[in-house]
Design brief:
Blueprint: E1 3-6, H1 16-25, E2 31-36, H2 48-57, E3 62-67, H3 75-81, E4 85-89, H4 96-105, E5 109-114, E6 132-136, H5 151-165, E7 170-174, H6 182-188, E8 192-195, H7 197-200, H8 205-213
Parallel strand pairs: 1-8, 2-3, 3-4, 4-5, 5-6, 6-7, 7-8
Helix pairs in contact: 2-3
The structure holds D-xylitol-5-phosphate (DX5) and zinc ion.
D-xylitol-5-phosphate (DX5) binds at residues 7, 9-10, 32, 34, 65, 138, 140-145, 174-177, 194-198.
Length: 214
């Protein structure tokens, strides 16, 4: 599968409605929504009121990436705000199994996220529960960072793990994705690519989304 999930973190917050409408009309599949708490990552982004507004304007699923400590506390709140998919960091959940079940029980699609320093093997006993696994290809916290090259190898390892334990699980990659590395990531086995800067800093974002999908 080749899906694109543009990250609204790089959108123009003064013209959010305009940027979301551009995404509605583009070939993108999901809208990636980055939530940061200033604890799990060194940055703070936005929370429920902004997501509710995004939901009102969006005609595609919201792919909510929680970069917050102990995200299990907020599953219902993010559901209410409009999340369709919620991904939580393995590193931020003491009880990852419980949190993934809570997302599923809320009727949403769920996923685990791994930081660049966390091995794929950490999901050996939870990949069965995941609709998607997100591999970070930068250290989370900021848009516009440089892609970490060993991500290709991790995508292949994760593909093997999914083939063994959950063939329907989607593999998503987030951070530093651009039109140069996108084909290599799809070839390695990725299904969903997140792109912030590559889309929103381009002269023609809709064309860039099209190019990322090729
Ligand atoms: C990083 C976020 C990413 C980020 C991607 O912490 O999770 O989703 O917005 O932005 P780019 O594509 O610019 O690296
Ligand atoms: Zn993200």
């Amino acid at each position: 599968m080749k899906l694109i999930s543009p990250s609204l973190l790089s959108a123009d917050f003064g013209h959010l409605e305009r940027d979301i409408e551009m995404l509605n009309q583009s070939e993108c599949d999901w809208l990636h929504v980055d939530v940061m708490d200033g604890m799990f990552v060194p940055n703070i982004s936005f929370g429920m009121p902004v997501i509710k507004y995004i939901k009102k304007a969006a005609r595609k699923p919201l792919d909510v990436h929680l970069m917050i400590m102990d995200p299990g506390r907020y599953i219902e709140a993010f559901k209410e705000a409009g999340a369709d998919i919620i991904t939580v960091h393995q590193e931020a959940c003491i009880h990852l199994d419980r949190t993934l079940h809570a997302i599923k029980d809320a009727g949403l699609r769920c996923g685990a996220v791994l930081n660049p320093a966390t091995p794929v093997a950490m999901l050996e006993d939870s990949v069965q529960l995941c609709d998607v696994v997100l591999l970070m290809s930068v250290n989370p916290g900021f848009g516009g960072q440089k892609f970490i090259e060993n991500t290709y190898g991790k995508v292949r390892q994760l593909r093997d793990l999914c083939n063994r334990k959950n063939p329907d699980c989607l593999i998503e990659v987030d951070g530093g994705v651009n039109t140069a590395n996108a084909p290599l990531l799809f070839e390695a086995g990725a299904d969903v690519l997140v792109a912030g800067n590559a889309v929103f800093k381009s002269d023609n974002p809709a064309q860039t989304i099209h190019d990322l999908k090729q």
